[in-house]
Design brief:
The complex is a heterodimer of chains A (about 425) and B (about 600).
Chain A (H helix, E strand, L loop, with lengths): L1 H31 L8 H29 L10 H34 L15 H30 L7 E8 L2 E6 L25 H13 L4 H9 L7 H27 L5 H5 L2 E4 L1 E5 L4 E7 L4 E5 L4 E5 L5 E5 L5 H8 L6 E5 L11 E7 L1 H11 L4 H5 L12 H8 L11
Parallel strand pairs in A: 1-5, 4-10
Antiparallel strand pairs in A: 1-2, 2-3, 5-8, 6-7, 6-9, 9-10
Chain B lengths: L1 H13 L7 H6 L4 H31 L6 H11 L7 H37 L7 H20 L30 H30 L12 H32 L10 E2 L2 E2 L7 H35 L6 H14 L15 H29 L8 H24 L1 H7 L3 H31 L5 H27 L10 H6 L1 H38 L64
Antiparallel strand pairs in B: 1-2
Helix pairs in contact in B: 3-5, 3-6, 3-17, 5-6, 5-7, 5-8, 5-9, 5-14, 6-7, 7-8, 8-9, 8-10, 9-12, 9-14, 10-11, 11-12, 12-14, 12-15, 14-15, 15-17
The chains are: A alpha+beta (about 425), B mainly alpha (about 600).
The complex binds protoporphyrin IX containing FE (HEM) and copper (II) ion (2 copies).
């Protein structure tokens, strides 16, 4: 309350002060017969000097910020393509910084130098084709270089990954990330959003998950049977609005269930193997140093964006569309901690597309491990596949992997063609 | 049509001046000068609202989670319980701030004000081609402003999906509370806004084509009019696309269609929509959105061309090249839209094409900058407040333009897309450049609008506080952004979990930015005071205070219906005969015939 009063008081006093100053100023200009549109030499020169001063302050604070916060402040990129992009970024930054200094200097210096002086008329100088040619052609040439280099790097960065790259899916929803490793066969199981149930959050498609989704929709707690029972129960009195909602829900489920039955008809159970060995991982994304990753991105609800600032990678996740990006982490978390001299440093995956209230908290830690550590971790996961965790009762898949192969497989070197057995 | 308009006014003049009703003079006026002023005052009001919103969310960014009386005062218990802003409201404020600033201040306000006031006056026309449509265009604008303003007070909050309102977020009330009634109001407000803007633009185009006075050829038009003309064309071609984007979104929201929606589960509810694409919306939105940024900037460039030439007492350098660049920018701005979508899942090859076209736009932009600078060279500069703002515009146009080059490079955009670097880029070009142009225009043409002068000293103070404050706000944002800070984050606490040094830098700079924001805002209070005080109490203006050449200064100070008391002026020369050798004065109005043996530039 007190603060409010103080703020109010300051504002009122401020306005009064300005008003008072204006009065004095007006009176004095009446006395000297000065008109408002006539700018005195004193005012002119003052502003000219301020122009120069402002330029110095602007440049000074720019340089000071570079010294204090670093040229880009983004730290070393943790992926080879990222370092190339940083090289290009530096080149472009240098070009634009030079342009910035040069043109601003000319602008402010001319503003200072050519302020009105008695007896010096302005030069009548309407055009000069040569000059105009010059500053069309020079920027065009510089831009040509920028375009060519930029497009080259862009093509490399967005190109498909090598076939042996490890495939990982990142699934986004309000407000967290889930990773799905493609498992021993390095192929992700298919998915369809209609298959989403409590024990199949990623809507992965197998014969069992289709059955289970159908069961849920028909006989689950909010399934069609339950809805119908409620709607037909004469003992339940419902607000008309609730009833309408429930009827709409039922109608929607009736449409969905037809599609699910169609899906079951068409589903090829041989594809199940692709899905069963997938590994679902929350909280932390583990990556293996020096292995290329092909990321697939999905979204359950709204658009999110998978932003890996340290790897200079970003791709939106779009509902109804699978997007992709690839990169190869080549500095392990432990090494980066040393480089940064910060024990608590970590890589991270952030959400970078406005997606709702808790958008700013939607992140997943990323840990890059040395190959051996990564394999240890992966081995610990091999008996926690999608099937093991959620559908242990499902028919076993003949997919015997010998212990000896595992290490290779984990790192994605080799793909036993076992998805079609 | 031209003939009819002229005749009507001629007729009017014969009767001399009869008393006008208050309502027809000040409210439902069909006079372009009054309509221009109505646009300006409405825009000033909306601008103040939007600035206030920005101060609210800047407080949250600088001192996250701390209780603030300021916040509880403005947001109340619903949206700032205990003086701490709610997450949803943060996004709501950002959204409405952006929407108002881009559309209501810098599109409606800027074009609406200055196209209205200057097109007829600088072309030597008695009024717009259609006074009635012109009035309608203002009232659409006013109505849409009102709806947008009211949407701030809706119980579930205003629209919260960002000013770009990407679906599905904007389509699903289950995803965020602002996508309920708030979003509906946003869409209706914008639909009305677009209708008004279209009517206005068509009117401007027709006026420029048909109502130029004798001798006013296209290549004798001041650059202001050229800029307004191209702006209006851009608006007519691109706003309908936004309208269709909005209509499809309304259908997705209300009629269960699936233009933008596919395979979505939200709030535990499995939606049946299938086959739509959120990317479709983005294409439609940015097909307007990019021309829109030039709709915002071109009028300011036009205004400052005029201001710089007049106050440097020199012809604008490269008049034809300036027209050429306006046209080139106008054309190119239609084929660059997808540079906002490099990492949205769009085909990367398509991205390459847009890299190319986008970087081309930098060429005409560079030409304009160099021409301004050369205009200053060996000038005889008079520092009116308008001149200060025009020079500020050139400086910020450089600063914001060069960062565009980084963003246009798709490969580099991967890492900076949707970070504060983008925020810095577009605020420097819109929040500084375009706004400076608008301020310059207000100071320069205030005598024409109100017949009185604004206070020069206060104008100086306003400028210097604004440029220091605004650069202080947006310069550090480049650093935060290039280091990787995402935009539209309620706070940066996540950084504390993984990179403390980055976190510290952000917290430092966020406080600095907020302090500068408050300084800049105080500067605007000075402007408001000066503006409203001078409307009623400012010293009376002379007819041609800045010793300018263009036609509006040949019209009397008192506002007449029809602008000129007798015949319309005739034009004999281009508008930039300033400091012409051999002339007596350092300016020759366009109405002065060429002297014996004098060449037209
Ligand atoms: C040299 C000329 C320019 C180039 C090459 C350029 C390039 C770009 C690019 C590539 C982006 C997308 C960045 C991203 O989202 O990652 C962008 C964003 C933007 N630019 Fe520019 N720009 C230029 C001038 C301007 C001007 C003159 C204005 C306005 C007056 C402007 C306003 C904007 C806005 C509003 C956005 C961001 C919209 C948003 O995401 O909310 N730009 N610019
Ligand atoms: Cu998100
Ligand atoms: Cu753009």
């Amino acid at each position: 309350m007190v603060t409010k009063l103080v703020i109010l008081l300051v504002v009122v006093l401020g306005i009064l002060a300005i008003a008072q100053m204006m009065r004095v100023y007006e009176l004095s200009s009446k006395l000297t017969n000065k008109q408002e549109h006539e700018i005195s030499n004193r005012d002119n020169n003052m502003n000219a000097k301020l122009m120069l001063l402002f330029m110095i302050v602007l440049f000074g604070s720019f340089i000071w910020m570079i010294l204090k916060y670093g040229w880009t402040g983004r730290g070393e990129a943790a992926a080879p393509h990222g370092r190339e992009l940083d090289w290009l970024m530096n080149l472009n930054l240098i070009i634009i910084t030079i342009t910035f200094f040069l043109t601003n200097t000319l602008l402010f210096f001319f503003s200072y130098k050519y302020v009105k002086k008695e007896g010096v008329p302005a030069l009548y100088y309407p055009h000069n084709n040569k000059l105009e040619m010059l500053w069309t052609v020079v920027p065009a040439c510089v831009l040509a270089v920028i375009i060519i280099l930029g497009l080259k790097k862009w093509n490399e960065a967005t190109d498909l990954a090598k076939p042996e790259a490890i495939v990982v899916e990142l699934f986004s929803k309000q407000f967290d990330w889930t990773a799905r490793y493609s498992g021993v066969n390095n192929k992700l199981g298919y998915f369809d959003y209609k298959l989403t149930t409590d024990n199949n959050e990623l809507a992965i498609m197998t014969t069992n998950t289709i059955d289970s989704a159908i069961y849920q929709m028909e006989s689950g707690t909010t399934g069609m049977e339950a809805l119908e029972a409620k709607l037909n129960d004469p003992n339940i009195v419902m607000v008309p609005e609730d009833r309408e909602k429930m009827e709409a829900d039922l109608a929607r489920k009736e449409r969905m269930i037809r599609l699910l039955y169609q899906m079951r008809e068409k589903h090829d159970s041989e594809l199940d193997a692709l899905a069963w060995d997938d590994i679902i991982q929350k909280d932390t994304l583990y990556l293996c140093k020096n292995k290329e990753y092909e990321f697939n991105f999905r979204s359950k609800d709204v658009i999110h964006s998978a932003y890996f600032p340290h790897f200079r990678a970003q791709m939106n996740t779009v509902p109804g569309l699978t997007t992709r990006f690839k990169f190869t982490p080549d500095i392990s978390t432990a090494e980066m901690k040393k480089i940064k001299d910060d024990e608590n440093f970590n890589y991270v995956l952030l959400c970078n597309k406005i997606c709702g209230g808790a958008h700013y908290k939607m992140r997943m830690m990323v840990v890059v491990l040395e190959e051996a550590d990564y394999n240890d971790w992966m081995r610990s996961k091999l008996n926690k596949t999608f099937k093991d965790t959620y559908f242990p009762q499902a028919a076993p898949v003949e997919q015997v992997v010998e212990e000896a192969d595992v290490e290779e497989v984990e790192a994605g070197e080799d793909n036993p063609e076992n998805e079609g057995e | 049509m031209a003939a009819v308009a002229h005749e009507a006014h001629g007729h009017h003049d014969d009767h001399g001046h009869h008393e006008e009703h208050f309502v027809s003079k000040y409210i439902f006026s069909q006079d372009h000068k009054m309509i221009g002023k109505q646009f300006l005052v409405t825009a000033v009001f909306m601008g103040v609202v939007a600035m206030l919103l920005s101060l609210l969310f800047r407080i949250q960014l600088a001192w996250p989670g701390e209780s603030s009386d300021f916040l509880s005062f403005f947001l109340g218990d619903t949206w700032a319980p205990g003086g701490v802003m709610k997450e949803d409201m943060y996004l709501g404020l950002v959204t409405i701030h952006g929407t108002i600033m881009v559309f209501f201040l810098l599109t409606g306000g800027l074009s609406g004000t200055f196209s209205n006031i200057l097109i007829p006056l600088q072309l030597g026309a008695r009024d717009m081609a259609s006074g009635f449509l012109n009035m309608l265009s203002y009232w659409f604008f006013a109505l849409s402003s009102l709806i947008m303003f009211v949407s701030l007070f809706v119980e579930t909050g205003p629209a919260m999906a960002g000013w770009t309102i990407y679906p599905p977020l904007s389509a699903l009330p289950q995803a965020i509370s602002g996508s309920g009634l708030g979003m509906t109001l946003w869409l209706f407000s914008m639909a009305i806004f677009i209708a008004g803007s279209l009517i206005g633009s068509l009117n401007y185009i027709v006026t420029v084509i048909n109502l130029r006075t004798t001798g006013m050829t296209m290549t004798r038009m001041p650059l202001t009019v050229w800029a307004f003309f191209v702006t209006a064309i851009l608006g007519v071609l691109s706003f309908p696309v936004l309208l269709s984007a909005a209509v499809l979104l309304i259908m997705d929201r209300l009629a269960g269609t699936s233009f933008y929606l596919s395979d979505i589960i939200v709030g535990g509810e499995m939606l049946t929509q299938h086959g739509g694409s959120p990317l479709l919306f983005q294409h439609l939105f940015w097909f307007l959105g990019h021309p829109e940024v030039y709709i915002v900037l071109l009028p300011s460039l036009g205004l400052s061309s005029e201001i710089i030439a007049t106050n440097a007492r020199k012809p604008i350098f490269g008049y034809r090249a300036m027209i050429g660049s306006i046209l080139a920018i106008g054309f190119l701005s239609f084929i660059v839209w997808a540079h906002h979508m490099f990492v949205t899942g769009m085909n990367p090859f398509l991205g390459s094409v847009f890299v190319f076209t986008t970087l081309l736009i930098a060429i005409p932009s560079a030409v304009k900058v160099f021409n301004y600078i050369t205009t200053l060279w060996r000038g005889s500069i008079v520092y009116t407040p308008a001149m200060l703002f025009a020079i500020g515009l050139v400086s910020t146009f450089i600063t914001g333009g060069v960062t565009g080059i980084i963003l246009a490079d798709a490969a580099l955009d991967i890492a900076v897309h949707d970070t504060y670097f983008v925020v810095a880029h577009f605020h420097v070009v819109m929040g500084l450049s375009a706004v400076f142009g608008m301020f310059g225009g207000v100071y320069h043409w205030f005598p024409k609008m109100y017949g009185r002068m604004m206070n020069t000293r206060l104008g100086y103070i306003h400028f210097w506080i604004s440029i220091v404050g605004a650069y202080g706000v947006f310069f550090p944002m480049h650093f935060v952004g290039i280091a990787g800070a995402p935009r539209r984050y309620y706070d940066y606490s996540v950084y504390a979990d993984f990179d403390i040094s980055s976190y510290n830098m952000q917290m430092d700079l966020n406080v600095v930015i907020t302090i500068f924001a408050f300084i800049a805002a105080c500067g605007q209070l000075i402007f408001l005071y000066n503006f409203f005080y001078s409307i009623w109490r400012g010293p009376v203006a002379v007819q041609n205070p800045w010793r300018s050449t263009t036609l509006e200064w040949t019209a009397p100070v008192e506002h007449l219906h029809g602008n000129w008391p007798g015949d319309l002026p005739t034009v004999y020369r281009w508008p930039y005969d300033l400091s012409k050798p051999g002339a007596e004065e350092d300016f020759i109005p366009q109405t002065v015939p060429l002297a014996e043996g004098e060449e037209e530039h």
